[in-house]
Automatic annotation (TrEMBL):
Belongs to the SRR1 family. It comes from the Eukaryota. It comes from Alectura lathami (Australian brush turkey). GO terms for cellular component: cytoplasm; nucleus. This is SRR1L protein. InterPro entries: SRR1-like, SRR1L. Residues 5-128 form the SRR1-like domain. PANTHER family: SRR1-LIKE PROTEIN.
Length: 166
């Protein structure tokens, strides 16, 4: 029951035809690439981020790095647990520190794999951040609020502002 005008979309790969069609449906297109740095602004918010790069999730978590904001979010996207299993912990903590820090405050439920797209969408999960779990995290988890830069990141899976993505 979310009105289309309250659904905000951005994909740097949208063609002009796709943007026109989405606009005709009444959906709101973000005018520029926010690099995943979208705040929930106190409202319950669903982020549909299927098959996105880790930096987008990390940026989203950074922008909303508080118990109040995170507990208002649900993310449908790549499994955080899967990221942690596939990356060396030192790389996860160095390059994607907000994902690493929130793992113990996250509930995650895997969605069933689609037989036709098993190789692409096989790692999709629903993530939510229960307030009681976030409040159990150590206080120092919330103290470091530096914006991610990804200087040492070998495989940055994000289209940054000005890189073919507005």
């Amino acid at each position: 029951q979310v009105p289309p005008s309250r659904c905000f979309l951005f994909d740097p790969a949208f063609s002009e035809l796709e943007r026109e069609a989405l606009g005709a449906l009444g959906l709101s297109l973000l005018p520029e690439n926010e690099e995943g740095k979208r705040g929930v602004q106190g409202s319950p918010t669903l982020f549909y981020m299927v098959h996105c790069g880790k930096a987008l999730y990390n940026n989203l978590l950074w922008r909303n790095w508080s118990v109040g904001a995170l507990s208002n979010m649900v993310i449908i996207g790549n499994s955080f647990k899967g990221m942690a299993e596939r990356l060396l912990s030192r790389i996860l903590e160095r390059d994607y520190s907000y994902i690493a820090k929130v793992l113990k405050g996250t509930e995650e439920a895997a969605l069933p794999a689609h037989p036709r797209y098993a190789d692409t969408f096989n790692d999709t999960s629903v993530h939510w951040f229960p307030m009681h779990k976030l409040e159990e995290l150590p206080a120092e988890v919330w103290e470091f609020l530096e914006e991610p830069t990804y200087r040492e990141c070998d495989e940055l899976e994000i289209i940054r502002k000005g890189e073919d993505g507005a």
